[in-house]
Design goal:
Four copies of one chain form a homotetramer. By secondary structure, chain A is of the alpha+beta class. Chain A is 40% helix and 23% strand. The model of chain A is unreliable at 374-406 (pLDDT under 50).
Chain lengths: 406, 406, 406, 406
């Protein structure tokens, strides 16, 4: 590939031209981009252009949270029809009911190197001894980053290895790279301490051994949280359920019980209807690492019948997100963060609460849609409005939401 | 919001103008988009613009698969630095070693409605009786879609409910919406059969009860597959490991053992280093539903020492992807599919094999990077090249790959 | 050890005498046993005596199930105080409410050998080809066992290996050993077919590769069932909840919601209060393999508010149990099976339904106990009846049930 | 049932007589028991007799552990043929190789009550505020038990509830009941603090909400440990593998890779061959709560090729066991504990290490048996020694171990 390592528009166009040649593709739509190649040094190599993901706006949703108050519109980058409208319907219901409480419960980014010893005994000694050096490790960390603060280290002995789980706060950054650098330096300090890692005992070292949960969907991260753990809740009176969600509290709770039972049966991480839709759409719109949708798409949705209607909450155990770093500086992504007031100190927590609120709204709307198609009436409505027909293409097929709302 | 339900450029600009007003944001960069609002009817509501995700190209990677042969360049839409270069390094190693075998093992999209009865006995009767009607249900399905083929139905009795797991092939479409419509119609047929659902026994019906795994990361989907199950493998001789991956087969296998042990300990779904990076980057570049990264980011990476070097394989249990439908028709996304030869019949399988090959390549590169920073030499290299310093911003902090490759 | 391989009382006593000598222990209580050493050839090697587990009787519980009708008393071998009384309380409630419906949903014992090939391509070919030989494999199986019937084989391609999941019915035996022998012979047949396993492609073979779930607690077994999948349910009117369970339907449902949310959060397999207590106590009393409590202790407990009280169900996804084979022929164990009518054809299904019914009863009682200790009143009762004191031994400390029932 | 609440031999016989009458069963073998009904007040209600589980002795196994050194014979109560002999074979291999290192990594018993508030905001306030009172809670705990020491409390906010995870050390007791009583009293203290639980905010309280993992197999307990977390390891030279385990290091490692891949694929908790066999057999022999086999049967078995042979380790993440309390005082059970030196202070840790050592030995033997039946030679051996025949009864069918060792 030509122009390797160059971050200029000219280099991009040279690569694009070369790519057209080797793949014999026109690639017309890659010609133009509003992105500035000069500013993508930390984001991508081999830049040839950009894809556009359409952005819609859902809301408003009224927040009464710890880090966000008032009505918020959320940008959603998606190609899944009905997502924006369904989230908006849910947001309307929550807003009419007085809004969503939201709260960041914890924030901690994890990084977990491995130290392998010749035998279990050495691993056991290391695990005990290293705990005495939290202060030294904090000092090492401070030399690398002014943003990362080392909260704790937890040694996990697995046979003759010790996975050392570092937990940090990282300000408003998601912090995966920051904590990697910090942990690397902290480990260098450890590796220099002969009383911790006697030469004849340490066999190998590795910067990450998969107990941090980075880019992985794991039960440990659900239980313990990774990144920002955040929750939202609301109380919906019967009238709102009926008018906006077009179902009843009892039907809604029945539907909730079914999806919870199904999730438990299937070994789902968490229990929800479609949290990942909101996480993906807002992550893509705001420059987050899209790969983190894998680990961050988990939700725990809870619905309870109350005398007046229903109580609903949504807990997102681990959002790996930030408002600085990654793709958050890209022009549109940054503007969309600004639009939600998610720039400046404390804005990562605000963004997390906004996501939790909309994830709550969407799950309420989706479960309502899925149950309000009660078999007796829905069949009639369906038959009247949507006569059976053969589809010509996937994208003409109605979604669940469309079907039962039609 | 103004212009609700209108899919025109004028309507988009009216909404954008309104959004600027209500949020008091300039939103300059949303003004222009190459997307055609008229063509987004199935993709988004409330369109106001688009975000651009930068696209780099990784590869070439030599394939010797069932559905793809020859060298392929893969477009990756990402903002995570080092991803494209690391995937390219892995692809170089695999290609030098003779390429990647790839194979689609199975394809099945699932949709699972719930029928709730008054008691367990009724649920048990229904579960038995409905199995006799597979032919009738196939007929009902054919009336809705010419693409979806009903493979099987599996009743799951949970207390007094029956979750009825429909499994379909869906051609080259991901098929979530197609199978929803088909299943809905099949359920209408069921609901009309009084011998199956006597009025006094059926209490509620719901189009999806979370045993399909749609938009969920679940252990069941890992074990059983959802969407396309695909695998890739390669044999890397020692020389390639040393020259390209800059480690040794023994070190590489040791690193693999550490991350596998860590994954088991942490309850990770699957076991891999960073499969989700490839899934997310190619999904975003090719118009897939980004929310499906949550369920599709799972991988099972296997590495074994051989006399000549290492054997490596990557199994992706469930890619919910398509080459028609969703966002695949968007101009750049479609061109990038074309660039990989992923249009036309059978192209979904081809795309799945390409993703599996690059996921294999990336995990090889990432684990190599993580271990080749062996403590003795890496510290020296690190100290020489990257003096400890305070970071100014998250995006200046080096990644794992950069650190150990520097 | 002396007398190796001899199954006589004299040999037992010689070993016991030797054991006393090498361990310098009196071991007085091992001197006598009612077991007949001659009959333990398939059960244990190196027999030196027996431990006694105390047996209590819970019930009666009224069944209206597919395989069991009428009142049943269940023997429970346990050392956990309050278990028998709590199960009895639950059984009383269910019985007063009209009894428990029970139903065996499916029965299948699994065994899963591994075939490893040189590359993925060979694995893929084998996985396709072997499916054509289900008839041949059934023939091979019939030559080994008159009880095992091969239902299906499911190939799982993992990199270059194929795990071949054999599923059998095994009559009234748990069937782990029977299916091992059958699968072994079936695999010998496969290994002789050169068109299936060309010599240059097959690299290794192993009788079990952990996809059967044998002696493992796995999400796959929860979703798919292993052994007998069985469910029980009941409808409890408000009066029964109040008088017998000493709580209210609303409190009970609230408690249920808390434990379900807790189970989801913690990555519990299934979702229940203490199913394993019933499984272990009845398994131990009836000669089951106690190690199977690990895989069989999973339950999915569901509770719903109804206008008249509560609906409750318990699904046990995989009971690895039998009424012939294993320890079921031991004298007391056999008598206790007889006492429940669990000998003869179809008795394994009957035993499974009895376990499901009592597991339902116990979870109802336990959740009631945990919530009925409502903070206001329970504190007073606790203070009056159980003044704080230092414990002298663990076994004087009250259980949850005792505490809140006192 | 007659004689309710009476713990005497006469009462037992009255109940037995009544049971014979109501069930029309002879129940001859229940007539006699060596157990003393007077001493079972904390263990069982409704005592009618006892079942005998046969006990064999495996070993010797040489330990070089933190809490156990020297050769140990382990009693195993089981009805699964080949278990004792296979464990003994593994123990011989480990002993010949110099013995097993063993180490208790941590000990903590968990209990997790739930506090439910009217809204998330109240839950969040409580979660923060309660952490300030660790000292007060420790004081409350000390008033209840002289054995339990409160290590930490961890609030888990789930919607409007807070699960408060108490972690304790409990001396040599398993401690489930002890920690229940302590937690109950600690919660009473909390419930009296109006600044923590304002009357208008707290809606319900429950002594356990399933985040402790009690009697549950959960991913959280695997990751975090519950009860005693313990590990064992050994280095086996090639000669020992060949002579005792009758396979080769390479074959053994290949087999290990297959079962690890299978475990990951199937969503197994941990990754092992048959840890639950050892846990169940020693738990039953020593008076542990057999129901805890469900949660305690998890193991993580690791095998690595070394230049001289193989390295093997076994980590048991959570053994809920004790050497006082429960059934440990029963005469035979107590003698068997004494035989292993497992009475007195620190003996719970010793027992845990013994279990880990034997679990390591058994998994080594089992995987060796499963792979050493390599298809070429095993078929011949099998054909010669065990001609295919129809089985007469389940218990005549050979086990995996027998098959491949024959």
């Amino acid at each position: 590939m030509p122009a390797r390592g160059l971050y200029t528009e000219a280099a991009r166009l040279r690569r694009l031209s070369w790519l057209r040649s080797v793949t014999r593709s026109a690639l017309d739509s890659l010609q133009h981009t509003r992105l500035d190649a000069d500013k993508l040094t930390g984001n991508i190599e081999g830049l040839v252009g950009a894809v556009e993901i359409p952005v819609g706006v859902a809301g408003p949703l009224l927040f009464r949270g710890t880090n966000v108050q008032g009505e918020v519109y959320a940008p959603m980058a998606t190609t899944e029809g009905a997502l924006v409208s369904s989230a908006t319907r849910g947001a309307l219901a929550v807003t009419m009911a007085g809004g969503a409480d939201t709260h960041v419960v914890s924030q901690a980014m994890t990084r977990a190197p491995v130290f392998a010893f010749s035998r279990l005994a050495g691993a056991g000694r290391f695990a005990s001894a290293v705990l005495q050096h939290l202060g030294d490790l904090r000092t090492a960390v401070r030399q690398v980053s002014g943003h990362a603060v080392l909260l704790s280290i937890e040694p996990v002995v697995l046979g003759r290895t010790v996975h050392l789980r570092f937990r940090y706060t990282t300000g408003d950054a998601a912090g995966q790279n920051m904590t990697t650098a910090c942990t690397w330096h902290a480990c260098q300090w450890i590796l220099e301490q002969s009383h911790l890692v006697a030469d004849d005992e340490l066999e190998s070292f590795m910067i990450e051994g998969n107990t941090s949960g980075d880019k992985k969907a794991s039960a440990q991260a659900v239980a313990e949280g990774r990144g920002i753990r955040v929750a939202a809740d609301c109380l919906l009176p019967t009238g709102v359920v009926e008018r906006v969600l077009r179902t009843t509290p009892d039907e809604l709770v029945t539907g909730y019980q079914h999806i919870t039972a199904g999730a438990v049966h299937s070994g789902v991480l968490g229990s929800h209807a479609n949290t990942a839709n909101i996480v993906a759409a807002i992550f893509a719109a705001t420059g987050q690492d899209i790969a983190c949708v894998h680990e961050s798409g988990v939700g725990q949705f809870i619905l309870e019948r109350t005398p007046e209607g229903v109580y609903a909450s949504m807990t997102l155990p681990g959002l790996a997100l930030g408002t600085v770093g990654g793709g958050t500086h890209l022009p549109t992504q940054h503007e969309l963060l600004e639009m939600m007031g998610c720039t400046g100190q404390g804005s990562a927590a605000r963004l997390a609460e906004i996501i939790a609120g909309f994830a709550l709204a969407l799950d309420l709307s989706t479960v309502s849609a899925a149950v309000s198609g009660h078999f007796a009436s829905a069949h009639e409505r369906l038959g009247r409005n949507r006569p059976p027909r053969r589809d010509d293409a996937e994208d003409q097929v109605p979604t669940v939401t469309e079907l039962v709302e039609s």
